[in-house]
Design brief:
Strand order of the largest sheet of chain A: 3-4-2-5
Structural class of chain A: alpha+beta
Strand content of chain A: 25-35%
Number of helices of chain A: 5
Largest sheet of chain A: 4 strands, antiparallel
Distance between the termini of chain A: 18 Å
Order of helices and strands of chain A: HHHEEHEEHE
Oligomer: homodimer
Number of strands of chain A: 5
Shape of chain A: elongated
Radius of gyration of chain A: 19 Å
DNA sequence: CTTGAAAGAAAGGGCCG
DNA sequence: CGGCCCTTTCTTTCAAG
């Protein structure tokens, strides 16, 4: 089982979240380690699934998808989006979260235009009762996950919360 | 002024969102182009800001931050989180969105434990009225932004909303 | 945009502090 | 575990068709 991350690991994670294309040489320079040493640590982090992958960060607005909205969806039983293949049928859905409380899921969608967004709402609305919220602007997104204060590490909820998900594109927990 | 993205650009974006460390050679093979050709396109996409950067995708659960929550925050005027430096004071805040509607902002936070989460709620609650929602599980996150259906590009809401993707009906993808 | 070649850099292995 | 050396491999970049 994987040991807890030390400070160097967090520095590595921080750097790689800012620039995922850093070479082991550059990375080693930033964290005061030699290239083989950081290569070892990075490999360990990858094998442990802490680093789930590397991806280009896309500016959706500049890519022609300037609109973002959150959709709370209370599913009709059996027609929940979660159980369907949201991948191909709903390319506009960028995130799916299962929430506590009354609503089944929280979706995040990207749209090219208001008519497009409207059409998405209608399409998703067929799956249940929806509550939509349009994003006016976004200050942060994909902000680097940082090391939490030390005192917060106690009292872990329980192992087993994370369903041993495959560390694959589109799903870090 | 940047021209609209064509199908090949979208394929490149798709591949780079799945694996941001692809070499131009590998990438070229995937999109049926030579290395120099895709290097050119990628460079153009980077300069246009469509590709905003590259980053390692972290599995926050495996990194010791298994809890996610959304916080709707209605700011007290002048004490809005948006205007403060959320960077250093709130390392747990991963996203900040300004929303339409009554609530000022939507925050997304990562926490190591329930006490930690509780403490975050209390800390952020000082800035205004909050409405919290804990995420039970996440199906997708950071799902690749995909090319929208062609018909959605028409009828932009109003000029000035997006200075990218001049959309005309019947435009080839 | 493609092919081809050259220069440069990076990754992996082995050994020692 | 980390640092240093080496060798091999790959990527990048330039040139020309």
């Amino acid at each position: 089982m994987s040991r807890a991350l030390d400070g160097t690991d967090w520095r590595i994670l921080s750097e790689l979240q800012e620039d995922g294309r850093l070479s082991f040489n550059q990375l080693g320079r930033k964290v005061n380690l030699s290239a083989p040493a950081v290569a070892d640590r990075v490999r360990r982090l990858e094998e442990a699934g802490v680093i789930a992958g590397y991806q280009a960060r896309i500016d959706a607005t500049r890519a022609g998808l300037p609109l973002t909205a959150f959709i709370k969806l209370r599913c009709s039983p059996g027609r929940c989006l979660l159980t369907t293949t949201a991948s191909d049928e709903y390319p506009e859905v960028v995130e799916i979260h299962k929430l506590s409380g009354s609503s089944c899921t929280l979706l995040r969608v990207r749209a090219a235009s208001m008519p497009h967004l409207e059409e998405i709402f209608e399409r998703i609305g067929r799956h249940g009762e929806i509550d939509t919220q349009i994003v006016l602007s976004t200050q942060y997104e994909g902000r680097p996950v940082a090391e939490p204060p030390a005192h917060t590490r106690s009292a872990q909820p329980s192992p087993g919360w994370s369903r041993a998900a495959p560390a694959r594109p589109g799903e870090p927990s």
